[in-house]
Specification:
There is one protein chain. By secondary structure, the protein is mainly beta. Helices cover 6% and strands 42% of the residues. It has a five-stranded mixed β-barrel with strand order 1-3-4-6-5. β5 and β6 form a beta hairpin. The longest helix is centred in the middle third of the chain and has 10 residues.
Length: 161
Amino acid sequence: MAGETKMTLIGNLADNPTLQYTDGGAAVVNMTVIANEKTYDSTARVWRDGDSLSMPCVAWRQYAENIAASLTKGTRVIVTGTLKQRSYQPADGPRRIYTELLIDEVGPALRFATAEVAKAAGKRPATQQAAPAQGAPAATWPPRPTTPPAVNPWPTPAMAG
């Protein structure tokens, strides 16, 4: 869509991706990518740590299941997606705003690693029930949307005025 803020981020996974399922059965994975800046100090001839960016990332459906099955804590990844800003009004406090990256593509960075690619199995059979969500979703921060984003946000000819 026009006007979206696209971002590519290269960094390491802070923890293992967390796979959960909504009440409607849609898979959602949450992970945090940390990108550390390194700067070269030419007078001391050493690399120094600079600022770091910790970016929450989210993916939905089969893509979420593939990410959870493939990536682990510490893996160096390349993530590209759309920045989304959401707000949340807790019952006991002021409105909170947070930013996350809605993942378009993610993969391991292969500069210092190797990867074995295997084609993922198709979608889950209709008879298989969604697994219940782990933990207490009401107590997690930031809160996760209960419905996945629209697959095709463009109106179809039948929907057009």
